[in-house]
Write a structure and sequence with these properties.
The structure is a homodimer. Chain A is an alpha+beta fold. Chain A has helices at residues 3-14, 19-28, 35-42, 46-58, 79-96; strands spanning 33-34, 62-67, 70-75. Chain A is globular and about 45 Å long. Chain A starts with a helix and ends with a helix. The structure holds a DNA duplex.
DNA sequence: TCTGCGTATCGAGATATAACGATATTACTA
DNA sequence: TAGTAATATCGTTATATCTCGATACGCAGA
């Protein structure tokens, strides 16, 4: 893995490495949802949610479409879900087995 | 996934979301190596490499042991390797234009 | 104890990210 | 075209991260 590839991979990971953004991925696992629905699901204000959605869209993790006044987001990069799975797995192990 | 779990998961991901740190994981996939070996493998200076190793150790991704003057690091959290695999997979798809 | 090698830490400056309230934009409807 | 709901963006402040040179620490051999 050369520097350039590593940098790009890091960019993608960074786009997931945030509590709100992880929760967004979780909220979208079942399919597309509007910004308002997502904001409610993750328990954050509209402005912040919109910003985080934009970040993930920029990095190619999400895509969006407008439908009237609302905008729906969905997961474009399925690897995001796999990454979420890995971290989930890690956290379960820490919580139950060790220490 | 509640806020607390999401925050912890984000912490772990953040510890991987850096070009050097991803390369470190790759360098350690084959087993433990000393700081000097790792620094050379990723092409970075000693101080920076040591700092990044420390970050990953703090977050439970690596562990280390001292052997004389040298310190060896290895991967403690195998999920780090899986995450790396996910991102690799993502980048390959993007690069070749498949879908 | 002194020396040298390998590793860790410190402090500073530059850059990036987070969070927030306020405001702008867009689209629908009366 | 005025009003309203949904979403996006702006401007600011606070905080975190990255990088680097310098330096301190830990260990082993002479």
């Amino acid at each position: 893995m050369d520097k350039k590839l590593a940098s790009h991979a890091a960019e993608v990971l960074k786009a997931l490495a945030h509590p709100i953004r992880l929760q967004v991925v979780e909220a979208l696992e079942g399919g597309e949802r509007s910004v308002g629905e997502i904001a409610e699901a993750v328990g954050e204000k509209q402005a912040i949610t919109s910003q985080q959605l934009n970040i993930m869209k920029d990095k190619g993790i999400l895509k969006s479409r407008r439908e009237g006044a609302r905008v729906f987001y969905w997961i474009e990069n399925e690897n995001a879900i796999r990454v979420l799975g890995c971290v989930h797995n890690h956290c379960r192990k820490k919580g139950k087995g060790r220490r």
